[in-house]
Amino acid sequence: MTDRNQQTKRARKVVSGTADDTSKKAGRPGGANGTRMNGTGANGTGANGTGKAKAAVVRPRPADERQAKAKAEKEALLRADTFTNAPKVSRRTLTKEEREVLAKQAEAENKEAAKLATTAAKGRFGRWWARLQSGPNKVSWGMMIVALGVVYGDIGTSPLYTAQTFLSGQGGIGSVDREAVLGMLSLVFWSITLITTVKYVLIAMKIDNNGEGGIFALYSLIRRRGAWLAIPAMVGGAAFLADSVLTPAVSISSAVEGLQTLPPLEKLFDDNPSLTLMITVVIIVVLFMVQSRGTESIGRVFGSIVLVWFSFLAVVGLVNLAQDWTVFAALNPVYGVRFLFSPHNDAGIALMGTVFLATTGAEALYSDMGHVGRGNIYFTWPFIKVALVCCYFGQGAWILAHSRDPHYTTMKSLNPFFQMMTPNVRYVAVVLSVTAGVIASQALITGAFTMVSEATRLNWMPHLQVRYPARTRGQLYIPVVNAVLCVATLLVLAMFKDSEHISAAYGLALTITMITTTILLAVYLWYAKRRVGAIVFLVLFLAIQILFFIASMAKFLHGGWFTMLLTIAILFVMYTWNEGTKLERAQRRHMRPKDFLPTLEKLHGDFRIPYFADNIVYLTSDSETKRLDTDIFFSIFADHPKRARAWWAVSVETTDQPFTREYEVQNFGTDFLFRVRIRLGFKVSQSIPAYLHQIMHDLSKTGELPQQKSLYPKVDADPNIGTIRYVLIHKALMPESKVSARGALSLQTKYAIRHVAGSPVKWFGLAPYNPLVEVQPLFVSTRRPPRLKRIERAAGSEPVTGDLPPVR
Hints:
InterPro entries: K+_transporter (IPR003855), K_trans_C (IPR053952), K_trans_N (IPR053951), Kup (IPR023051). By secondary structure, the chain is an alpha/beta fold.
């Protein structure tokens, strides 16, 4: 009994304490009921404590109670919204940093304009310079340095191995004579002159697509001249991208292996055979990691080094030319043609494969035009060519001077480039060559970014996230491509181990790119009404480059198979993506307002159907604002109709200006359907949720969008805009679709690539908002299956048909 009494007392104490706490909270201003107990204590007595139960109790009226409850709910809602942040935009259309950049740019342009005006008044040369700086061939010292670092790396490493490969093919330095040396120099000189100078610098670079170069940009200009032109464009682009994988591997590994020729390091490399490979891997990984900084910042660093490198090539070449200036007789093309078909040419037609090594950077030069500007290449190429010619002819003079020297005739691996220098100078050459190998890789990497960007515009590759680290749109960075190139290059190193085996596969794919570029250039010249020139151009350059291709095919079984396999794989991706896109577009239909507005208006007012969301936002690639894609229309009515207070069809465009931020809206005369086109600069982050919130607030202020008040907390914490649901539509092939096996393979491959390449959900910043990815059937024509036959079943009997009896 005692225990029970104690428990009862404790229970009463707890109840009393709870009542006291509640009454104290209620008597506090801003309490739970929102009122104050004026003059009354916790026990209902007066303020002086003398009042008893007779004192009157103040009770709130029902209306006041409802208002207090509503106020408490609103305060609770606002407090809940503070736990998340709404996607907001600034009041300004430009950030402080962007305003500073534009101000500096305007100031620089004003200074340049004033300088040009002053220069133009100084005579004929001044007027020419002013016209040059006002046109597409504009030059600047800073961008010329960038051009050196971005464009010429690949062609700048050719002197490292061209002469060495020539001697190896002829049986060594003791087997060559003056005829052979002059023949090789003549072929090298005229190959550089015709392929690089004439074809690419003087002809191809004048043909650009809004400043962009490369085979895809060229194809974009002539694509309407025939559907067959897509074949050489795809093949050439795939071959160039395949070569972009091999160039970093062969350039850097061959340069790093030059460290083995230095006496102090010989023992270290002998004791650690894999050290060269490890150093190469580290350099390649670091190179790909710095790509996100942009080609301009990389180019400024590399450009100064390349300037030193080509100056070094010219100086060492001239030093050796001083021993024998007669090698300049090789400028006569007769020496080259005579030796090519001479019985003394031990390499035969394969000699052209060696000569081709001197031109390997020509295609990258054209592809990288958009990164540095055409004028900067025009002004730097003469210096580059003079330096290359001096180096090649200097090596030729050294070979003639030492062709009978027993010390060199017995040397196992002779490289005239290093041997023509004194030992002290050779240390500098090795260091510079390693750096030049890295820069050569940079030229192909930036070219690959440009090629993929152009392929994306042609719908030959998936739309990938593109970044523009520099001030111009031409200098871009594609993270997915950068990662794929890095992994593929490391795989090449793992397979082939050293530069000797990698070089067997090097260059073969690039000859294919050169041939296809020649075909497209000839077509462009033909339709530009230069038909005689087009025919001469086609015959001359096809003849030369087919010789290069035949000679390079000798490498096929020694590693060229890998290049061709990689080319075919990239070509398969482009072809299937293109074919899949064509099939999708063939079934795409658009609706005019008179077709979709009545149905949407009826759904909007049908109160029997609950709201799917206050706002349903569809992202579409269709930039036309006066129509609606049928995919969106049928998504709204698929399964259960998606009723909303407002439907939005949003397209996003990227402009050629860096900081554009603008939008336009078509509401079709309604307050529930909005067609929005957002235009963003190429350096503007595509934060679609924030911009959509701004657009919705703008339309609410103008009355175009009815007021939307959120009753409950939302992820975006914006109580003045209702709930938003983002929807992305993907297509899927129906089993009954009447499509060829090739078409089905193309669509399946495209969808698989899209899954790997990434989703617009990430690009547009929609992932935190749980977007709905909806799959719709691809409505291509379908096969009609045979009709079903109705059968009659008698009571208590099996069905009577002409088919086999049922299995029991």
